[in-house]
Amino acid sequence: MSVILVTGGAGYIGSHTCLALLRGGHEVVVVDDYSNASPLALTRVEALAGRRFRAVIEADVRNRDALRKVFSEYAVTAVIHFAAKKAVGESVRMPLAYYDNNLGGLFSLLEVMGEFGVKRIVFSSSATVYGDPVTVPITESFPTQATNPYGRTKLMSEEILTDLAAADPGWKVVLLRYFNPVGADESGQIGEDPSGIPNNLMPYVSQVAVGKLGELQVFGNDYPTRDGTGVRDYIHVVDLARGHVSAVERFDSLPSLSAINLGTGRGYSVLEVVLAFEKASGCPVPFRIVPRRDGDVAECWADPALAEQVLGWRAERGLDTMCEDAWRWQQGNPDGYRQA
Ligand code: NAD
Ligand code: WQD
After folding, report:
1. Which pLDDT value is given to residue 1?
2. Residues 64-101: pLDDT tens digits?
3. Where is the NAD(P)-binding domain (predicted)?
């Protein structure tokens, strides 16, 4: 029986993907060091799926011996590699921690995969690799560029994986470039659980709506967009999770390297997100316009045609559902996984 190893499986996107994999009948082993997650997420995933993980191992992916133990004990056939640090601002302050964790983790994982002859990997990349796009929508052939250390770890990881696939076509590498993942499982049992004050828009808005934060700061209303605020391609995390299941189920038909956008193909402004969230929650989201945030781009949204063509995948959930599901999670878990 084939087994999928999910690194960072207790995290936000990882937990939703694990649920989709378990529901799809896959055997799943999780490795997570819980540096940015709670084991409770995995307990809840098992309860929602009505199935158990094959194994859940607390380990750092940079620990080669721990990985070797996993590959010797379980017949892993493919890996989905989520484990990474992801806060852009923190990466500017602590670049070495980001290079060490994100690149060191990838190296040790690829090395051990090679030792065990496991050559199928889905890698969590990001629309951040497009930097400031010359136009929108963004196709996979756009030039890549990084504007901060976090983005550089994603770009360098893509380059390392590209070199590996070129050197040995026995590898199957799928680079999934996520746009802006938001929302939560419709059960409200699992969701995004940022530590401290959220950096990203949707968790910030939902904490304003619930009354934990006073007001949203809107970073700039002088962009060349329809209302002057930044436009992004928000994608429901459950759709994103489905995209990973499609990728692992289609390895056989994929070339040795694919880079695929996972987005909806539709952009929403900050103010449109605020309005949609107010509608979904029935709560006001007070905001104030402040200067632009360094490094932000005006517009970033995907051309998702390739994902449909090669993965048979397209996003199904719209902004209202994203907000409703984020709100259900927020209301039921005002302190994330910490309260339980
Ligand atoms: P997350 O922080 O919720 O999940 C990452 C998980 O990896 C956490 O459970 C964390 O404990 C674990 N982890 C981190 N370093 C580890 C290590 N060295 N060893 C073992 N486990 C480790 O983040 P997420 O939002 O679920 O993101 C998952 C992946 O998707 C990341 O690679 C991220 O860079 C990428 N990504 C995220 C977004 C986003 O906006 N959320 C967008 C594009 C790409
Ligand atoms: C969205 C919009 C902000 C917060 C980041 C990473 C990217 C990827 C996804 C990992 C922008 C505005 C935000 C706030 C605001 N992550 N905003 N007030 O910056 O598009 O992408 O997450 O790979 O790499 O850079 O997402 O949610 O931070 O911002 O006005 O308090 O909301 O200016 O227009 P971003 P975001």
Report:
1. 61
2. 999 999 999 999 999 999 999 999 999 999 999 999 99
3. 5-325
Which H or E element spans position 182? strand 180-182
Beta carbon of 150 within 6 Å of any ligand 1 atom:
no
Q: Is 126 in the pocket of ligand 1 (CB under 6 A)?
A: yes
Residue 268: active-site member? no
**pTM over the 0.90 mark:** yes
User: Residue 312: what residue type?
Assistant: G
CA of 275 to the centre of ligand 2 (A): 17
How far, in Å, is the centroid of ligand 1 from the Cα of 221? 30
Q: Which of 74, 130, 150, 204 is catalytic?
A: 150
Chain center to CA of 155: 15
Q: Which of 82, 148, 200 to mutate to test the pocket of ligand 1 (most atoms within 8 A of CB)?
A: 82
133: Cβ below 6 Å to ligand 1? no
**Is any atom of ligand 1 closer than 6 Å to the C-beta of 12?**
yes
Instruction: Tell me the CA distances in angstroms from 261 to 178, 180, 251, one per residue in order.
Output: 6, 11, 16
Tokens of 208: 């304003």
Token reading at 198: 């959220």
At 340 the pLDDT is: 52
Strand, coil or helix: what is 318?
A: coil
Task: Give CA separation, 129 vs 126, 133, 148, 152, 220, in Å.
Answer: 6, 10, 10, 8, 22
Please identify, by atom number, the ligand 2 atom nearest to the C-alpha of residue 178. Answer: 23
- Report the CATH fold assignment for 3-184+234-263+303-315: Rossmann fold (3.40.50)
- List pLDDT tens digits, range 200-211: 999 999 999 999
Helices (H) and strands (E) in the chain, counts: 12, 14
How is the chain split into domains, by residue range?
3-184+234-263+303-315
**Rg of the chain, C-alpha, whole Å:** 19
- What distance in Å separates the CA atoms of residue 108 and residue 98, rounded to the nearest whole number? 15
